[in-house]
Amino acid sequence: MSLNRTDVTAAMETALNKVLDRPVTGLSGQTRLFDDLHLDSTTMLEMLMELEDSLGLEVDPEELEADDFETVDTFTDFALAQLETRNAA
């Protein structure tokens, strides 16, 4: 299954709606996850778990870098790279 940026962003919105228990719509690439959406480390991990279920994303916590979670774009890049690596294996 090949996913694109739109797929990942849509999955993020769905996951964030559930994790934050409030509507999250209209994410843009520049939306900052911590500053704009007020995520913290706990809600970020919950979002990752949701994305593991919905996208088949597998994330090793050791590989997580703060830069990957700065904006929707940086996280999407990270997620697509993880999915590509897994699909290539």
UniProtKB/TrEMBL annotation:
Gene3D superfamilies in UniProt:
ACP-like
What InterPro entries does the record tag this protein with? ACP-like_sf, PP-bd_ACP
User: Domain of life, per the record?
Assistant: Bacteria
Q: Where is the Carrier domain?
A: 6-83
Listed name of the protein? Acyl carrier protein
Organism encoding this protein: Streptomyces heliomycini
